[in-house]
Amino acid sequence: MEILVKPCGEFYTNCYIVDRKIIIDPGIGAYEFVREHVDKPLAIINTHGHFDHMWDDKTIKEMYDIPVYIHKNDAFMLENDPFGYNPPKVKPDYLLEEGDIKIGDYDIKIRHFPGHTPGSITIETGDEMFSGDFIFDGSIGRVDFPYSSAEDMKKSIEKFLKIPYDKRVLPGHGPATTIKKAQKFLPTWLEYL
Ligand SMILES: [Zn+2]
Ligand SMILES: [Zn+2]
Predict the structure, then answer these.
(1) Where in the numbering of this chain does the Metallo-beta-lactamase domain appear (predicted)?
(2) Residue 147 and which of 38, 78, 113, 124 are 20 to 30 A apart at CA?
């Protein structure tokens, strides 16, 4: 599996491209990175609805005529701009829930980890897990934004600690980690929530 990554915009939000087919979190200006590397993509998936992760959804959706996926609890962020940053609004095509989906030949597991936002998810395919702003290398996503919940984050971390296997974890900002490494540092964060 080929993973391309480019940090986009002032928050260095990682846009990932899987096998030149699946685009994850196209932030501000990501369309240029996508246009450079991608010919016939299948879909855009957002790990959550924050503006720096979805800014170029609309541009790329229209460029290739492909669907946008997001968890149902964050869909309103794409359509309504609840934070007032005025990103290009887009209507998602598929509303995700926890479970397994198929996009083209890709088997994708969606896990729901609310806390940073109500509809934060991880996206697993092959040996990779895209974790958005739920888990970073050594830390966790902020829970002091509107629609965030520290209580939910606590439960999400406890749920993550039970994942029995290892995979690489590719976060929404910063470098990669792994499920096993994250399971080692996460208990400390529970104390701060
Ligand atoms: Zn976020
Ligand atoms: Zn972010």
Answers:
(1) 12-173
(2) 124
CB 166 within 8 A of CB 129: no
Spell out the long-range contacts of 144-147 with Cβ–Cβ below 8 A and sequence spacing 24 or more: 145/50, 145/83, 145/116, 145/117, 146/82, 146/83, 147/77, 147/82, 147/117, 147/118
Please state, in angstroms and rounded to a whole number, the distance separating the CA atoms of residues 156 and 54: 22
pLDDT tens-digit map of 66-97: 999 999 999 999 999 898 999 999 999 999 99
> Which residues sit with Cβ closer than 5 angstroms to ligand 1, an ion?
50, 133
User: Each residue of 161-188: pLDDT tens digit?
Assistant: 999 999 999 999 999 999 999 999 999 9
Smallest-distance ligand from the CA of 27: 2
Separation in Å, CA 114 to CA 5, 26, 77, 92, 181: 24, 20, 14, 19, 21
Ligand located closest to 116 CA: 1
Distance 189 CA to ligand 1 centre (A): 17
The Å distance, Cα 6 to ligand 2 centre, comes to 13
Nearest in space to 156 (alpha carbons), one of 123, 124, 117, 100: 117
Ligand nearest the Cα atom of residue 13: 2
Environment of ion ligand 2 (residues, CB < 5 A): 133, 172
